[in-house]
Amino acid sequence: MKDWLTRAGMVCLGLIVLVALASVVNLAGDPDEIVGPRLAPPGPGYWLGTDNLGRSMLPRIMEGIATTLLLSSVAVLVTAALSAVLGIVAGYRGGVVNELIMRLVEVLYSFPAIVLAILVAAVFGPGQLAALASIVLVTIPLMTRLVRAAAVGVAQRDYVTAAIISGARLPRILGRHLLPNVAGTIAVQVTYALSVGIAVEGGLSFLGFGVQPPQASLGVLIQQGTTYMTAAPWMITGPGVVFVVAVLAINVVGDGLRDRFEPRQARSLV
Amino acid sequence: MTALLEVRDLAVEYDSGERRVRALDGADLTVAAGETIGIVGESGSGKSTLGSAVGRLLPSTANRVTGDVWLAGERVFDLPPAGIRRLRRERLGFVFQDPIASLDPTMRVGKQLKLVLGSKGDPLSHLDRVRLANPGRVARMYPHQLSGGMAQRVALAIAMACQPRLLIADEPTAALDAQVREEVLEVVFSVAAEAGTSIVWLSHDLTAVARRCSRVAVMYGGRVVEDGPAADVLGQPAHPYTAALARSAPAMASLGDRLSPVPGRPPVLAEASHGCAFEPRCPYAEERCAKERPELHVVRTQEALCHRATELVTAS
Asked: Transmembrane residues, as ranges (chain A) (predicted)?
């Protein structure tokens, strides 16, 4: 039943990535070039209208997608790497190490995402780095907790004991046995974290703490669009729709991955 | 120390915060090089804890109260981390109850064997040694593609890869189909015999163990209550518990006999037992059985932890 949904999500996600790639080579034109009158409705030469400076919306939205997607992806990869290490070590070693890591992570968890993001922006100064660090800090607690939970289960399995008996050192046990067996959990969480990342970037840039104009990101575009919402609704419609579709598509793909990697009932009958 | 494995007065407690369970209550065991010994006991008798303790594999909730374990002349609990790793790698092999779960599901069989072997040795020859047909094909398979019997052979190949001195098999056939059980056991014992490896086979099946092993040790309430040659322990038990266990085994009964189960429940100790742990279920119990911990009595070829072992044997 959900199969077509997952597939539709993947198609949407694929299109979004393609658009992001196209924007790198300025396929639809220079996003910073002034091509027509200000706040012009969609028309030839600027198919999605122009913004308050007369820049064409289409290349700006494409650049916005690329910026947001790249920023979120890099941040989520950083999160995945850190969470994998922290979660696996906490889950395998237990005891004091576990307490230390998990309490630290819970402190981060206790902040609302946007408050944490503003705090980070205040420390780093507004910009891409602040947005990246915010996404990492917002997504790391949940992923670390789930990786740890999976690692706790794997650590008690016989093949880990067998590896210990065969004289394996800690790096081999963690890298060769724990990591591959929690990789499915990490993959699922990466997709969810990506949608959170896009939302955090949007929120932060909307508030002016993230990506700085003239560079476009979905957050920046939506912020600019709200100012002219009544006069030029096309300025907010495009970025808004893309934003919603991206977050939805990623979540749907995440659900599909979860059903695949973490079936509620094991298929094996042994 | 001439014995390969020596366990002396080992007591281990599990502490789960609100509840404390004494899994081992002064267990003694000696295994000579090349010997095959079966350790028989009900669930909760402490046999798995004993097996784990030999490799210092007790979970962090377990706590060694007294006693020591010597393996190949080394005190297992005193070794530094590098030392215990070397001891496990060179001296010890484990075979688990669930063969599929003892293999990493994310790795091909050949790769897992290679990890254990290191650079030396050819995985295929080790698969061949445990009599797997078509080792090349098996090496390319993932654990979920193996049958239970095949997986247990692979697990054995991995356990025996470094020619350990001691192989601990924790109910190695309990999860297998009846018809492959004997085959797998045959392979376990013959591979171990070729390598000169001692076997400690943990089981609840007295008769099955007695058929394969030269010696049998019976565990009850965290202690080894009887220890002797397999045929004698099974044929002329010196401890009332062993006798009760033998009477309850279907394989021992002749046609028309009623099986007599051991009455009562096995004990769950919270602290060191004050007397004999079997006393509440024992038909021969007398007053001192509840008050004094039984000492070792030598009866014929066996050693038994029972106050009345000598008189009961002479009486019968």
From this structure: 65-92, 104-124, 130-147, 178-211, 231-254
